[in-house]
Design goal:
Number of strands: 7
Order of helices and strands: EEEHHEEHEHEH
Distance between the termini: 13 Å
Helix content: 25-40%
Strand order of the largest sheet: 1-2-7-6-3-5-4
Bound molecules: adenosine-5'-diphosphate
Structural class: alpha/beta
Number of helices: 5
Largest sheet: 7 strands, mixed
CATH superfamily: Leucine Aminopeptidase, subunit E, domain 1
Shape: globular
């Protein structure tokens, strides 16, 4: 499914983010940029060791929660990987929503800085970081919609949801945003 907001399209697909052909692929990293399981492990495995070499060399202090850093993309079909650090869910009163929104915004700003016209996001923080999927969908999609309307770039923002439950949660929220925007 996709919805147009201004000059940008927000698209939802169910699948594996490592297979996407886009200018930038976003990784759900940890603040030490140390690699791990989930989507982080899959991206490092598919991209090859160059990613870890580059994060160690360029970002030895890691990356704070709510922010993102860029590397090349190794063997992935992308030009860049943006390593975004989402918050660990702690019940909702530890600025989790603000930090998740800020992680998405940091990636969208990196996309503009690196002249990317297309970017693919996973559902950051919804795995081992336990952010509830429906709330993550609201924060992720409304942040992205606002960025689209403010900046008109990048042209394509694709959310790659790994399982049906995540796809459903994101689809419900995107439908609501489209309706609120006056689209049917
Ligand atoms: P976090 O630590 O930010 O919660 P995880 O990697 O544990 O990160 O999970 C984030 C989301 O990425 C989860 O919804 C998980 O199902 C999903 N995911 C795992 N592997 C992939 C993949 N190859 N492509 C897209 N999404 C993935």
């Amino acid at each position: 499914m996709f919805v147009q907001f201004g000059k940008c399209q927000i698209e939802l697909v169910q699948g594996d983010i490592t297979l996407q052909e886009v200018d930038a692929i976003v990784n759900a990293a940890n603040s030490r940029l140390a690699g791990g399981g989930g989507v982080d492990g899959a991206i490092h495995l598919a991209a090859g060791p160059v990613l870890m070499e580059e994060t160690r060399r360029r970002y030895p202090d890691g990356c704070p929660t709510g922010s993102a850093v860029a590397t090349s993309a190794g063997r992935l079909m992308a030009k860049h990987v943006f390593h975004a650090v989402g918050p660990v869910w702690g019940g909702g009163h530890r600025k989790e929503r603000e930090l998740l929104s800020s992680a998405y915004e940091a990636c969208l700003n990196l996309a503009i800085e690196h002249n990317c016209e297309s970017i693919a996001f996973p559902a950051i923080s919804t795995g081992v970081y336990r952010f509830p999927k429906d709330q993550a969908a609201e924060v992720s999609l409304s942040t992205t919609r606002d960025f689209c309307l403010d900046h008109g770039r990048p042209q394509l923002i694709r959310f790659v949801l790994f399982d049906e439950g995540s796809y459903g949660a994101f689809a419900r929220v995107l439908e609501d945003l489209a309706t609120a925007d006056g689209q049917s």
